[in-house]
Amino acid sequence: METLGGVMKTPNNKPIVEQAPEFVAAPAIARRLSVTGRYILQLAEQGRIPCIRLGRKCVRFNPDAVAAALGIQWNSSAQ
């Protein structure tokens, strides 16, 4: 097995899901920041926070990467 971008890969190059980072939709990030989902999408469009675009309307975020980009630390009890 090898590591590619922090995701463990099997010999046939398929990711091991248990090792993959968590990705969530804009509303989940918005709730943690007490802002709207639309604002989160605007930040992503501006390039101020990282995101993964899975399609035209499907955008996902890694909470840890978003926190790092904003220079904040999540409260461990926040979900």
Describe the structure.
The chain is an alpha+beta fold and 79 residues long. The protein has helices at 26-33, 37-45, 63-70, and strands spanning 2-4, 7-9, 52-53, 59-60. α1 packs across α2 (37-45). The radius of gyration is 14 Å and the shape is globular. 13% of the residues are buried.
Number of strands: 4
CATH class: Mainly Alpha
Helix segment tally: 3
How much beta, percentage-wise? 5-15%
Secondary-structure arrangement, i.e. CATH architecture:
Orthogonal Bundle
Topology:
Elements: E1 2-4, E2 7-9, H1 26-33, H2 37-45, E3 52-53, E4 59-60, H3 63-70
Antiparallel strand pairs: 1-2, 3-4
Keywords summarizing the entry:
79 residues; alpha+beta; Arc Repressor Mutant, subunit A; two-stranded antiparallel ribbon; 3 helices; 4 strands; globular
How do you describe this structure in short?
By secondary structure, this protein is α+β, with helices and mostly antiparallel strands. 32% of the residues lie in helices and 13% in strands.
